[in-house]
Amino acid sequence: MAEEYQNINVSVFKQVIRDKFSLIAFIVLFIIYFSLLFADIIAPYTKDFSDRTQSYAPPSKIFMINEQGKLSLPYTYNYKREFDSEAMQVDYKLDRSQKYFLKLFPRGEKYKFLGLIPCSRHLIGTESSGRLYLLGTDINGRDVFSRLLFGGRISMTIGFLALFVLFPIGLLYGGISGYFGGKTDMLMMRFAEAVMSIPSFYLLIILAAILPSNMTSIQRFILIVLILALIGWAGFARVVRGMVLSIKTQEFVQSAQSIGASRLRIIIKHILPQTTSFVIVAMTLSVPSYILSESGLSFLGLGIQQPDASWGNMLKEAQEYINILYRPWLLTPGFLIFIAVLSFNLIGDTIRDVLDPKSKIR
Amino acid sequence: MNILIYILKRILQTIPILILVSLISFFIIRLSPVDPLADLKLNPSISKETLQKETQRLGLDKPIGVQYLLWAKSFIQGDLGYCSTGEKVSTKLIERIPNTLLLTVIVIFLTWIVGVPLGILAAVSWKTPLDRMLTVLTSIGMAIPSFFFAILLLIFAVKTGWFPVGGLTSYNFSDMNLAGKIWDLTRHLVLPTTVLFTISLAGLQRQMRANLLDVLDSDYVKFARAKGLSEFKVLYKHALRNAINPMITLLGFEFASLLSGAALTEYVFQYPGLGRLILEAVLKSDINLVMASLMMGAVMLILGNLIADILLIITDPRIRVKA
After folding, report:
1. What is the CB neighbour count within 10 angstroms for residue A28?
2. Does residue A334 register a pLDDT over 50?
3. What is this model's ipTM?
4. Cβ neighbour number for residue B18 with a 10 Å cutoff
5. B244-302 confidence digits (pLDDT tens)
6. Which of residues B106 and A5 earns the better pLDDT score?
7. Which residue numbers of A have CB closer than 8 Å to B's CBs?
8. Cα–Cα distance between A49 and A46 in angstroms, integer?
9. Which of B297, B267, B159 is nearest to A195 (CA)?
């Protein structure tokens, strides 16, 4: 039985992969998650490394051809900060006095690889005092590229975590409501409807705003996961309840009842497992909306807080459009959110197409 | 007559939901550790007596159950209290709600005009490259974070100077004649509308496509084809009518998601709508304002669902018979 089930999963996976768009999406997501896992090594700097003299420095220019017009190993120059008193603005000029060659695995900031092994090598970097900013720096002189990787760790996992909190709640709530029926059902569903009647984003910002400000970043992260889960459970519970209503009339439920199984046992052991395939599809389809919610929340300054990075709060600096006109590299987190969400959507679409029995008949 | 009774019943059903909504919101806000008088307490020029008076006026010295009842009593009487800035909450809401409604109605209208035909097109050319392309295009629209898209459009507006940046009206709005006013409003509305339109188009187009595919698979459509009707007649006379019905139910949901999505868009474009109001209120922990705008949001959402239900009764005779 289990083997058969696995075979179905494998065939679904094969069908999904056969679709060109979702294959690309899979590869993209794999690359993203892979680089997030190894962010410590791939990023040239650590999350909190900052050089206050280099605030809003543009991306480093990498040269392959030297002054004599000959091919050379890639090298870069540092930026020198200059104040242009006529235009009243700060300019960054290349400091051409000193060349810095790019190096593979140079020594840099110390970190713990995967949180365990102390290490100081980074995938790419420059010699001693050179600076390599692949995507420029932010207001505090922190490397945007490195922070993108560390921020992605939060942005790309928070949605999944919220789903793992939300689905058990929704399943149990919908299961109890559907199985017990009668007054319990009516009361529980009215409550769920009331939660659904508050526009979800309004509820989201209110819940996020009442979080006290003196929390550690881990506490805040957990609470934001909980808040995201609180928004979505009601709609999910309603669907589960509908399914439970039809499942509970089936014979295997009656047989469990006649044996004398407790109601909670029947719901958890007999009824809810029947909804598995629906749950898997619903989960895949709702990951992107949680990624978007988190980024929106952090964009407003109510989600993940500085100095922690998330793609949403990195975009906070882009709120002033003047900032963006001169510093377009600050927009990169937005493109990454877009690519990640798009990939999830494309895969979700294909899974739905594959699992929809109607599309097989045609 | 039956219809009227049905509608009346539906309206009565919303009352317990509204009460629950108010209970949930009130307790979330009041049980939070945020002090509504924090601003005043930090201000050294405000005396202790004033603070005490303020506490009494807001009922903060009473148990929370009593506070809720006091709030509910004045809410029913139409008194929504005062903001922390001293303005009346009701005047603020009356100022903002029409703006949000205007934006939402325009966006819903546009998405229907574009989304429904695109959905039909995709369903008719099912499993062709055209269908696949439409799916991917709508996926792209769905994947752009609204605030990010809004920022991109703002930059576009600043660089080209074709559109005004932010707000709903220009500073000299009151001096314009009617045509000028309409033109000014339109120019301000283009960018926020584009953002919300792009994001909500995808859902509608997909739903329409799925519905029509469902209906095209049904026996009565096969029968219509078998008896030799032209494809045009099969599609527009027989299939479409049934495929549209679930869309009307969707109207209510669309309204809801627009209310939510609009908050971020309004925020970026500095659009004076309900979403931005609630954001500002939340950031300032202005309890009365938050409560009132939450209630208004819920009322608008429930109203949207109600209107969708009523429209469904009008278009679908089967529901009329059941009712």
Report:
1. 17
2. yes
3. 0.82
4. 15
5. 887 887 787 777 777 777 888 888 888 888 888 888 888 777 777 888 888 888 888 88
6. B106
7. 21, 190-191, 193-195, 197-203, 205-207, 209-210, 212, 288, 292, 295-296, 299-300, 302, 315, 318-319, 321, 324-325, 331, 334, 337-339, 341-342, 345-346, 349, 358, 361-362
8. 5
9. B297
